[in-house]
Amino acid sequence: MLHHVSFTADRPREVAETLAELIGGRVSRFGPWPGGYIAWAADSSGTAIEVYPTGTEMSPDADGGQANFAHNYFAQRLSSVHAAVSVDRTEDEILRVAAQAGWQADRLD
Q1: Any residues with CB less than 8 A from the CB of 57 and at least 6 apart, and which?
Q2: Which residues contact residue 47 at a Cβ distance below 8 angstroms, ignoring those fewer than 6 apart?
């Protein structure tokens, strides 16, 4: 089970809303950084997916806080960040939601 992941997107609110639909959850703004949203799963584990604007970078806090945020204006749109998430949806539902969002979704072994 995945409990937490964060990544960037060009349209963080739309991405978070689509993820919330897939995980059967809800979306809220995510305060640590402007333009950030979080999709909360409706589970007992506190599963959450944070989505920040493209270019957002996080670094460890030297004083023991959670993280420091910065914006990299030269950030690439693509990255190696990815996650495998189990959801309570059929394959057809997942493909439908992805298509509605304009996302690429493929059936793979």
Answers
A1: 69, 70, 71, 72, 75
A2: 1, 2, 3, 4, 23, 25, 40, 41
- Sequence-distant (≥ 6) Cβ neighbours of residue 10 within 8 angstroms: 53, 54, 77
Q: What is the pLDDT of residues 4-22, one digit of tens each?
A: 899 999 999 999 999 999 9
| Three-state secondary structure readout of 19-35 | HHHHHCCEEEECCCCCC
Query: Is the pLDDT confidence value at 87 over 90?
Result: no
